[in-house]
Amino acid sequence: MEKKTISRDGTSIAYESSGQGPAVILVSGAMSTGGTMAPLAVPLSDHFRVVVYDRRGRGESGDTAPYSVEREVEDLAALIEAVGGEAALCGVSSGGALVLEASASGLPVRQVAVYEVPFAVHEGGAKERAEYTERLTEALAEGRRGDAVELFLRLTGMAEQMIQGARQSPMWAGMEAIAPSLAYDNAVMGDSLVPRARLASITVPVLAVAGGASPSWMREATRAVAETVPEGTYRSLEGQTHMVEPGVLGPVLAEFFGE
After folding, report:
1. What gap in Å lies between CA 247 and CA 132, rounded to an integer?
2. Hey, which residues does 41 pair with through a beta bridge?
3. In principle, which of 147, 150, 167, 185 could form an S-S bond with 30, CB 3.0–4.6 Å?
4. What pLDDT, on the 0 to 100 scale, is given for residue 63?
5. d(CA 123, CA 134)
6. Residues 10 and 87 in one domain
7. Which InterPro entries does the entry mention (predicted)?
8. Is the CB of residue 97 less than 8 Å from the CB of residue 91?
9. Which pLDDT tens digit goes with each residue over 171-187?
10. Looking at the structure, do residues 76 and 61 belong to the same domain, yes or no?
């Protein structure tokens, strides 16, 4: 990351930008950094100033205890100020929950796009999330970072054999390094149910996108976001999953942000 800005609580937030034009800030989800979003920045940077950043507690950004979702909203406020005072936001997975909250908080945001925020649409999903929260909190409190990562991977539906394979991979050390930030994404997701009252307060256009090959509950949750915000649009990308291809999502975002 080339640049840094300072959030309200003194935390250093590392970011970099590419391209010229209206600012678009890309927000990553769990177990990811600004670098994870860099491929998506490429198709957008022909038309916009695209900003990727390391969320607090990961990559080159700092961290300050105690954590709260409000601090992450303040991080976005600092970034928006650093890039000109107004921006569009795009969040992927739990990063989408953060950009929706930032918009509902009244930050100077002109448009919001989200890709598959994993909200629960039924009580069963909320119960699963509550059990995950309890076990994640316990694992992190005891310093069992590897177990915390395993819990998250199981939550995403990864097969046990693949999880054990991941534990033996060179990537595992990096995953353990940012494991404490899993608690941050979990906090951003709240009780995991679609926050309908909060979404109803958003006053800017929102594009909610899902993959056509993703589980039906994921598409249902994405549609619920589009239907709950006052100015919402739902799009499904044929053949795409939660690991969306930047070359497919990028043009859809460029069209929306160019409106």
Report:
1. 33
2. none
3. 185
4. 96
5. 17
6. yes
7. AB_hydrolase_1, AB_hydrolase_fold, Carboxylesterase_BioH
8. yes
9. 999 999 999 999 999 99
10. yes
